[in-house]
Specification:
It is a single chain. This protein is mainly alpha-helical and 238 residues long. It is built from twelve helices and no strands. α5 packs antiparallel against α6 and α10 runs antiparallel to α11. The longest helix has 44 residues. 32% of the residues are buried. Helices cover 80% and strands 0% of the residues.
Length: 238
């Protein structure tokens, strides 16, 4: 322990000498210059590599920003078709404008292409192509309050149509638990309860309504939750 303290004091003293003595500082600078001269090639390579990495990052961000802006412009008409329920035109384009699938193919690493995955999945769900819906909705990833939870719920809808009730319940629960709030979470909990009830898992279904009752008493689903919980508790006790 004493040796450690001694070394620390010695290092501090040496640092002070560099600051207070011009001769010591000059000697240290000379050593640094000698090191740089001796290792000039290595230092230049390191500096050049760092500059290259910074340039690549900057240019990459600039390129992605421009690509994303262009993707937004190109996706505008496809979203209009989607909202008009012209799903084939939304997916494949109209010959003059890109479809959503084109956006993903041409602007794959942009935020706009990520959002296009959501629209594509929702389109396939409406068309009854449930496997395709699951594939594209699973590719979507967002951090907003509404769309990510909605994507989980739509995946749940697709699994419900495929009669895969356990997986549907899982995704409905995931939607309810994503940034939980009194407006959307109760809706997804009701869907989860429906999936559990189809599995004859009345206890889990009742638990979904219990969550609504305890956590979201101000929601519009509250009264129905109380009614359905009582019904399911009766079924579970038989």
């Amino acid at each position: 322990m004493a040796k450690t303290k001694y070394r620390k004091k010695k290092d501090i003293k040496k640092g002070n000498e560099l600051l207070e003595s011009s001769e010591a500082l000059a000697e240290q600078l000379t050593k640094t210059e000698q090191y740089l001269e001796k290792n000039k090639k290595f230092v230049l390579i390191a500096i050049g590599s760092l500059a290259l990495v910074i340039s690549v990052i900057f240019l990459g961000r600039y390129y992605l920003k421009n690509q994303n802006n262009q993707a937004q412009i190109d996706m505008f008409q496809a979203v209009y078709y989607f909202e008009s329920d012209s799903l084939d035109l939304a997916l494949n384009g109209d010959g003059n404008n890109y479809g959503l699938l084109d956006i993903v193919d041409n602007y794959g690493f942009t935020k706009t292409a990520n959002l296009a995955n959501y629209y594509i999945g929702a389109s396939y769900l409406k068309k009854g192509e449930f496997e395709n819906a699951i594939e594209y909705l699973s590719e979507f990833s967002g951090d907003d309050l509404i769309v990510q939870a909605r994507a989980y719920a739509l995946i749940g809808d697709a699994y419900m149509e495929l009669n895969d009730y356990p997986t549907a319940a899982e995704f409905y629960s995931k939607a309810a638990e994503y940034k939980p709030n009194e407006f959307l979470s109760p809706l997804y909990l009701v869907k989860a309860a429906d999936a559990y009830e189809k599995l004859m898992d009345f206890e889990s279904a009742s638990d979904c309504f219990e969550t609504i009752i305890k956590k979201y008493p101000e929601s519009s689903e509250y009264q129905n939750a109380r009614k359905h919980k009582a019904r399911l508790d009766g079924l579970a006790s038989k």
